[in-house]
TrEMBL record:
Mg(2+) binds at N107. InterPro entries: ATP_PFK, ATP_PFK_prok-type, PFKA_ATP_prok, Phosphofructokinase_CS, Phosphofructokinase_dom, PKF_sf. This is ATP-dependent 6-phosphofructokinase. Keywords: Allosteric enzyme, ATP-binding, Cytoplasm, Glycolysis, Kinase, Magnesium, Metal-binding, Nucleotide-binding, Transferase. It is an enzyme of class 2 (transferase). It comes from Aureicoccus marinus. Its main location: cytoplasm. The gene is pfkA.
Length: 328
């Protein structure tokens, strides 16, 4: 029979994302509501290995729902990838009387949790927190909505100056393996072209499209480039290439970088995080383990972590079609 869960730990791991604090708050308050003890683990798995724990109560998470980043800090921990590191982490959890943990993070964090669960039969639950929205088993990850709204706001501003000067801008957005940010923010901001890792449009098509834009009377253009794009040139090389082949264009580059990971979470991300935190704690208390909480058709669902870490969510083909139509 599964051991009764009386104390749950919560940690954030991997790249941070806006809304992680709302998820921490939700886990802590759900524990308080259900009269379960809760401890926070600082600095992700590194803090687990070092026993960097702090008891939490409902008041410990006052005034954080609106804050970006993570109050628990985050880290990418190499030591947790080793059996010795995980053994140290397990010893710390046992010493602190922790019966289960909730990890808020992405693929790498979940893989660590799954291995840990397999090695020590220790109950774990994942909550997807990443701006990339690339995790299988959920239509939305915490932080994605905030990130695309941030990107759209910035592109709107760049468009102002682009059109004043009749310029072409290449704007690089995050998305190492996937183009969800690029595609959604690109459609939302009315980009001329969107270059994503899933689709290699090719340099010829890019030049053709830019020629068509000029011919049709567009004075300025915005091209969104996901950082993991496969066209074979980075944004600066793309600028040089276009200026060489289409000298009519005055080109500028803007790399948005880590500003996409910051800022106050949107209402959507706060609500999503609050719902997922409740579900994660309740699922653990029902005896479920090694799952990730997700959302589909507005219902919360559980997906085995072993499934959630298999690759990345594909981009929405329909949205690619919409984008193609909008750029005519
Ligand atoms: O995982 C989210 C992500 O934002 C990626 O899109 C990006 O490539 C990466 O994190 C950057 O990570 P770091 O902060 O470690 O440089």
């Amino acid at each position: 029979m599964a051991k009764e869960i009386k104390k749950i730990a919560v940690l954030t791991s991997g790249g941070d994302s806006p809304g992680m604090n709302a998820a921490i708050r939700s886990v802590v308050r759900t524990c308080a509501y259900l009269e379960i003890e809760c401890v926070a683990i600082y600095r992700g798995y590194q803090g687990m290995i070092e026993g960097d724990f702090k008891p939490m109560n409902a008041r410990s998470v006052n005034n954080i729902i609106n804050k970006g980043g993570t109050i628990l800090k985050s880290a990418r921990c190499l030591e947790f990838r080793t059996p010795e590191g995980r053994k140290k982490a397990h010893d710390q959890l046992v010493k602190a009387g922790v019966d289960a943990f909730v990890v808020i993070g992405g693929n790498g964090s979940f893989t660590g949790a799954m291995i840990f669960n397999n090695e020590f039969d220790f109950p774990v639950m994942g909550i997807p927190g990443t701006i990339d929205n690339d995790i299988i088993g959920t239509s939305y990850t915490i932080g994605f909505d905030t990130a695309i709204n941030t990107v759209v706001e910035v592109i709107d501003k760049i468009r102002d100056t682009a059109s004043s000067h009749n310029r072409l801008f290449f704007i690089e957005v995050m998305g190492r393996d996937v183009g969800h940010i690029a595609l959604n923010a690109g459609v939302g901001a009315g980009a001329e072209e969107i270059l994503i890792p899933e689709q290699n449009l090719g340099l010829e098509r890019l030049l053709d499209s830019l020629k068509r834009s000029k011919k049709s009377g567009k004075s300025s253009s915005i091209v969104i480039v996901a950082e993991g794009d496969k066209i074979g040139k980075n944004v600066f090389e793309l600028k040089d290439y276009v200026e060489e082949h289409l000298p009519i264009y005055d080109v500028r580059v803007s790399v948005l970088g880590h500003m996409q990971r910051g800022g106050n979470p949107t209402c959507f991300d706060r609500v999503l995080a609050s719902r997922m935190g409740v579900k994660a704690v309740e699922a653990l208390l029902e005896g479920k383990t090694n799952y990730m909480v997700g959302i589909r058709d507005n219902d919360l669902i559980l997906t085995p972590i072993s499934e959630a870490i298999k690759g990345h969510t594909p981009v929405d083909e329909e949205l690619i079609r919409v984008s193609d139509i909008m750029t005519t």
